[in-house]
Write a structure and sequence with these properties.
Layout (H helix, E strand, L loop, with lengths): L1 E5 L8 H20 L3 H8 L3 H8 L5 H10 L7 H22 L1 H22 L11 H14 L4 E8 L2 E8 H18 L10 H29 L1
Antiparallel strand pairs: 1-2, 2-3
Helix pairs in contact: 1-5, 3-6, 5-6, 5-7, 6-7, 6-9, 7-8, 7-9, 8-9
Length: about 230
């Protein structure tokens, strides 16, 4: 299933969501301009599980390794990787930003990216392959959206045998099926990194998004009760 748009207009202009998209595109254009040097660039600024594991054990400097938890989420492995991620962020990011507020949303987005990267490292501690992409952070956005707006309608392209049908489905169904696909893909591949995709990073980000939104809603209800 491919989401096309949601029927859930935000109340405010999603400044942070749009800025994140611009920054990701700008970073990718910079990557293209590096030419043959891009491989070394990805190795230096992507999350390398082996490097993080060594840093946590005190074998290598921690600050530089930790920095890649942030820089990696603005890098992408190709146009399809970039466009797919930005498409999901464009559809679902505005409402989550609207719900949280712009500054909180930015903090949440970065935290989701870090948590998802650490999840990938945990399942692939000795991997020397750099992991890049905003997928983990965006998975957090999807989890938060699924919790906050489960009944919102998402216009989705659905394959039915040899044909495609455009159907408006509940967000919980669309994003729930997305999560199920990530989970089964992770369990299918050893370490959850098969096929060049960090499946466990997606799972970690999604669960973090649900938890963060649930805590926010609970805190807001608690505050409202006290103020009465």
């Amino acid at each position: 299933m491919i989401p096309i748009r949601d029927e859930n207009p935000p109340q405010r202009v999603p400044v942070v969501t749009r800025t994140l998209i611009v920054l990701n595109v700008a970073a990718f254009l910079y990557q293209i301009g590096l030419g043959p040097k891009v491989a070394a660039f990805m190795l230096g600024w992507g999350v390398v599980p082996e490097r993080l594991t060594d840093a946590f054990q005190g074998l290598t400097p921690v600050p530089s390794a930790m920095l890649t938890l942030f820089t990696s989420m603005f890098l992408h492995g190709g146009w399809i990787h970039l466009v797919g991620n930005m498409w999901y962020l464009w559809i679902f990011g505005d409402n989550v930003e609207d719900e949280m507020g712009s500054l909180r949303f930015l903090g949440f987005y970065l935290a989701a990216g870090v948590v998802s990267a650490l999840m990938h490292v945990m399942f692939n501690p000795g991997s020397p392959v750099p992991a890049v992409g905003a997928s983990g952070a965006i998975a957090g956005v999807l989890g938060a959206y699924a919790y906050a707006f489960p009944r919102a309608r998402v216009v989705t392209l659905v394959p039915i045998i040899f044909f495609f049908q455009i159907v408006a489905l509940p967000a919980l169904l669309v994003l729930g099926l997305w999560f199920v696909f990530q989970f089964f893909s992770a369990t299918l591949f050893a370490g959850g990194g098969g096929g060049g995709v960090a499946w466990w990073a997606h799972i970690g980000g999604f669960l973090f998004g649900i938890l963060a939104m649930a805590l926010r809603r609970r805190r807001r209800r608690s505050t409202a009760f006290v103020e009465q």
